[in-house]
Amino acid sequence: MKRIGVLTGGGDCPGLNAVIRAVVRASIQYEWDIVGIRNGWKGLIDGEIELLTDYAVSGILPKGGTILGSSRTNPYKNAEDLQKVKDNLKRFGIDALVAIGGDDTLGVAMKLNEEGIPVVGVPKTIDNDLSGTDYTFGFDTAISIVTEAIDRLHTTAESHHRVIVVEVMGRHAGWIATMAGIAGGADEILIPEVPFDIGEVCTHLKARYDKGKNFSIVVVAEGAKPKEGGMVVTQSDEKDEFGHVRLGGIAHSLSREIKNRLNVDTRVTILGHVQRGGTPSAHDRVLATRFGVKAVELIRDGNFGMMAALQGDDIVPVTLEEAVSASKTVKMELYDIAKIFFGR
Ligand code: F6P
């Protein structure tokens, strides 16, 4: 009899509960026990563990967020917490772990596996910036939310002849801004991968005004920055346990610059955590379910230190090292397609 622990770490997103449900349902066929670890790695430090039965996951597939809770706790921040993780794995008789998370959570999973603790990973983040997988679950839902927001902002921007600057999530990669910007017909898309020239942005927007299109939608990723430096805006100087500052607010700086340079009316919408809330899309429900089933198969086959990944239409194992090696940034041929529509 195996006992499998499952945890969800980092920023939450729609689809997490679909993974948890799949892990439990797929494990039952092997007559394994499944325990839920509360609040990511914090739950293993504090010993917050609960049995997950078939009944416990009934009805959670469409539910946003995670029934287990999440955190940005890093057990490698000190030796005492790391030892507590190892002690609690023994204390609760956990034979293997399913870690559902982004680069921070899976980075911890990789280190634990290197220390001999059997771990498999499932790629989660609305940012879609994990290497080794074409998509992470949560991303499709987020771009659907942002696309709908852009559609709605189009009508009010047009009615009031305004430039509306929409700030979306995406710390190191501008996948949400690029894909939702294309889907929503944005007139400018600014991403961390391509430092922007505010003068060029304003030239694009002015070109639209000059031909009578007296409104524009500018989509900017929270991690975007100008070529000349500065303007990377943070919410506070405090850093989380993985060293990340809280980004947010660049849209206001952009809006002021556009207003001052073009003498046009501007407004700002920062979508924030709306992008991470609510029920998962059908695509994310299926992808999350497939990832959860694959994670159980990896454990069944003793294939530890691996992550379930989407490549093409197939769910395949990739190493956790590959997954966390570097942020997967936006393909420039995709961004080049978006640029065709700037200033038109
Ligand atoms: O990592 C996903 C993410 O949503 C980022 O896009 C965003 O910058 C960050 O999490 C926000 O983190 P928190 O919810 O801790 O403020």
Helices and strands, with pairings:
Blueprint: E1 3-8, H1 16-28, E2 33-37, H2 41-46, E3 49-51, H3 79-91, E4 96-101, H4 103-114, E5 119-123, H5 139-160, E6 163-168, H6 175-184, E7 188-190, H7 198-210, E8 216-221, E9 234-239, E10 245-247, H8 250-262, E11 266-270, H9 282-300, E12 306-311, E13 314-319, H10 320-325, H11 332-339
Helix pairs in contact: 1-9, 5-6, 6-11, 7-8
Bound molecules: 6-O-phosphono-beta-D-fructofuranose (F6P).
Describe this structure in words.
The protein is of the alpha/beta class and 344 residues long. It has two domains: 3-137 and 280-323, Rossmann fold; 140-276, Rossmann fold, CATH 3.40.50. 39% of the residues lie in helices and 19% in strands. It has eleven helices and 13 strands. It has helices spanning 16-28, 41-46, 79-91, 103-114, 139-160, 175-184, 198-210, 250-262, 282-300, 320-325, 332-339; strands at residues 3-8, 33-37, 49-51, 96-101, 119-123, 163-168, 188-190, 216-221, 234-239, 245-247, 266-270, 306-311, 314-319. It has a seven-stranded mixed sheet, with helices on both faces. It has a four-stranded parallel sheet with strand order 7-8-6-11, with helices on both faces. Strands 9-10 form a two-stranded antiparallel sheet. α1 (16-28) packs across α9 (282-300) and α5 (139-160) packs across α6 (175-184). The protein is elongated and about 70 Å long. The termini are far apart. The mean pLDDT is 96. The structure holds 6-O-phosphono-beta-D-fructofuranose (F6P). 6-O-phosphono-beta-D-fructofuranose (F6P) is lined by residues 10-11, 72, 102, 125-127, 169-171, 222, 246-247, 276.
